[in-house]
Amino acid sequence: MKGVDYKIIGADGREYMAATLDELRAWIVDGRVGPGTLVWSGEEERWQPASAWPELRWDLPSAPPVIPVVSKPEPRFHDAEFPIRAAAYILDVFIVAALFSLITMPWAEYYRELQEAALKESAKAAPDIQVLLRFYSLFLSTFLPLRLAYFVGFHAGLGATPGKLLFGLRVVRVDGVPLTFPRALARFLAELLSIAAMGIGYLVAPLHPERRALHDLIAGTRVIRKPVDEAVARDEA
Q1: Distances (CA, A) of 189 to 19, 106, 151, 194, 196
Q2: Which helix (H) or strand (E) segment is 39 a member of?
Q3: How far is CA 213 from the centre of its chain?
Q4: Measured distance CA(78)–CA(235) in Å, rounded
Q5: Rounded to an integer, what distance in angstroms lies between the CA atom of residue 167 and that of residue 92?
Q6: CA–centroid distance for 21 within its chain
Q7: Element (H, E) at 224
Q8: Do 162 and 91 touch, CB atoms closer than 8 A?
Q9: Mean pLDDT in each 10-residue stretch from start to end of the chain (237 residues)?
Q10: What is the DSSP secondary structure assignment for residue 160, as one 8-state letter?
Q11: Are strands 169-173 and 221-225 parallel, antiparallel or unpaired?
Q12: Domain ranges of the chain
């Protein structure tokens, strides 16, 4: 290949002349020419990558092996059916009621008497508002914080309440990402609307294609069964 002129297209896009093959090989050592650098040979009068020229193939550095990147598949999940959601919710209601009885045990007698008085006043045409306010103030100041701590804490911490965990359910965002504390709190507040609407918000779930209740639609959440991948792994174990 003595006397053959070579040209290259540099990294800056400009054309450079190499008078001899030895000079071109020196450029390879300096890193100016790589396997993909376009090289023109005066003998054949054409351009092609440096790795395609036989006289340069053994001078070029070998390309590092390409390691394929295998992405982990998205976990597949199924939206929870309404009967399973209802069963899990009923269990959670019993657990919250038991915790409420335990917390209010020190003033259980006073609470029972106040509750009976409130029921009697409610039946009257002109009830005593003060009695009703005392009862509901005591009830809401204990029951609501307990319910908030229970549902928000478990949904943000474990992704599910004990009732949902028992039935293999999880509460996630619509894209399958676990709930953060703010999202779990937003869902709790939205669920109060479902309750205030005489429970109609819950009845949206069996009609929705993704089994989402009213509070799920407001908070951007969904209740799912465990991902299929998790279930398969558990069965294989």
Answers
A1: 79, 29, 11, 9, 11
A2: strand 38-41
A3: 19
A4: 17
A5: 11
A6: 58
A7: strand 221-225
A8: yes
A9: 70 75 82 82 81 80 54 66 92 93 84 82 82 81 90 94 94 90 94 85 87 92 73 41
A10: S
A11: antiparallel
A12: 6-52, 82-236
